[in-house]
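Our consortium's second objective concerns turning raw sequence data into structural hypotheses that experimental partners can test. To show how far this objective has progressed, the report includes one record in full. It was chosen at random from the queue rather than selected for favorable results. The single chain below, 75 residues long, was entered without modification.
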Amino acid sequence: MSQINSLKFFLEKSVFGVCTFIAKKMGIKTERIRLYFLYITFGTLGSSIILYLLIAFWINIKKYRKEGKRTVWDL
């Protein structure tokens, strides 16, 4: 059982945290957001992955700005 939990933790940490971010903003459980994302992905034949990557990019830029690091737009 601990291997499953460690795998789950690794996957949650390595997939940008988009679903967690959306769940916190909306006040919904993270598992429900992930499930909806999977349904949408299969329903649209994978085109929602582009939206997921755009949100991940936006969250990453937001994190860098909050930490005070320079981004490409600051140059």
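The partners drew two points from this record. The chain has one domain: 2-74. The radius of gyration is 15 Å. Both points have been shared with the crystallography group to help prioritize constructs.
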